[in-house]
């Protein structure tokens, strides 16, 4: 079986390290996993009135319909002020509503946090996990993926220049594949 993994990147900038890591993960994915990045930058900021009035923006509806068709979810996130960037939190919020129709419910997930700093976006990683508990996303616990000092890990072409990190990311994906196998429905 091949599992389709919706992959979300919590940075919108062109040269995003986090997006580069997401692309590396896509390339390293074992044959059971197919990673696809789903764009979240054009989702209007969540406003419950629009759902309550039955007039959700088309971008919300398209996003919800898209995510629901995947087997699993992978979040690659930088850290903004020790937390999850608003663009990624907004995507979680949009996907979680209307109440009772959350697209996240029950989908196996994993988190990779990325930072040029030494603390490896630990704060974002765990704030994200707090939401994923509530959203009922069974989230891979081990191995945890904290990618710190990321600028030193990527070469000019956005490839991982360091064998140890590449091996770690491949192992992370292998464990995620097992996790999806055990937890998907
Ligand atoms: C940051 N940055 C940052 N880094 C970090 O490790 N912890 C933090 O709390 C913050 N806070 C923060 C807030 C805001 C508003 C910005 C714009 C940046 C730095 C951040 O890690 C850096 O800009 C990364 O390059 C962002 O990830 P991408 O865009 O390269 O994927």
Automatic annotation (TrEMBL):
> What Pfam families does the database record attribute to this sequence?
FMN_red (PF03358)
The residues forming the signal peptide are none
Q: Show where the NADPH-dependent FMN reductase-like domain sits.
A: 4-150
For this protein, the record's InterPro entries field holds: Flavoprotein-like_sf, FMN_Rdtase-like_dom, NAD(P)H-dep_reductase
Q: Which PANTHER family match?
A: CHROMATE REDUCTASE (PTHR30543), NAD(P)H-DEPENDENT FMN REDUCTASE LOT6 (PTHR30543:SF21)
Protein name as catalogued: NAD(P)H-dependent oxidoreductase
Tell me which species this is from.
Answer: Roseococcus pinisoli
